[in-house]
Amino acid sequence: MAESEPADARNKRRDSVGRSSGETFDALLAKVAPGARTTRIKPVDTASELPPRQELAGYDAVFLTGSPLHLYKEAPETRRVVEFMCAVFAAGTPAFGSCAGLQVAAVAAGGSVRPMGERREAGFARRLHPVGPGSGHPLLAGRPPVFDAPAIHTDEVAELPDGATLLASNAVTRIQAAEIRCGDGVFWGVQYHPEISLFEVAAALRRQSDDLIEHELARDGDAVEKHAAMVEALHNAPDRRDLAWQLGLDEQVTVPERRSIEIRNFVDRLVLPTRSRRGRG
């Protein structure tokens, strides 16, 4: 479990939702793959000890979390996390990433990331749809032709690297899901956040309140809080059809098992078959 957010961002997230991005993934994997053992590492931290390539090859999977890092900015943190992903590709260990995790994998394989400018996906990515091979790709198995998902990001993948396949898109962000093959490795990733709860969506909106106001998605802090409170209320009472209607959400978001289907597909359709072929089945 590679936490690609800097220490201050991890602490800020813990203050608002009680856990870091890696801990959120851990909690979900405990349900998706009961009995699985995880190791959490921090590739962006200067003093962090990272597994060598040989050790990475011994893991069944690597997960990359979201992060506020900007991959198009040269910095020690971005170099370290990209170098880590290069090692994962070289080790041949299947990997999954959401949001910045997709961006890290794209850059490590030779693609590029850019800021979104005035555009935003704040709270939810709307009208996501498979494109090209995505319609039959196992990452999106079980998703309907059009769906929504939790999302909040200010950067996006600009260009996928050679050896990558675009799987899903929408009107705001062209590269919403992709498979990236590099060296011996294969990565499945999404720009949205199938791992987070509606409670965490509400907290993210509150943390980014100033940005939402600046980009005219909300008139003021009270408007952000009203919207976040509605999302949090739906988390607490997922059967409230009135809240789902007001937020324009359906069971693809409100039901946890459907919201996290990409991660379940990654485990069931890529990790477990690969594990079996590697002699650990």
TrEMBL record:
UniProt key word Transcription: no
Any one Gene Ontology cellular component term annotated for this protein: cytosol
Entry keyword NADP: no
Keywords of this entry: Glutamine amidotransferase, Transferase
SUPFAM superfamilies, alphabetized: Class I glutamine amidotransferase-like (SSF52317)
Biased composition (Basic and acidic residues): 7-17
Segments forming domain Glutamine amidotransferase: 39-198
An annotated Gene Ontology molecular function: transferase activity
Xref: InterPro entries: ChyE-like (IPR044992), Class_I_gatase-like (IPR029062), GATASE (IPR017926)
Region of interest called Disordered, as start-end residue ranges on this chain: 1-22
Sections of the chain in a coiled coil: none
Protein's UniProt name: Type 1 glutamine amidotransferase
Organism whose genome encodes this protein: Sphingomonas aracearum
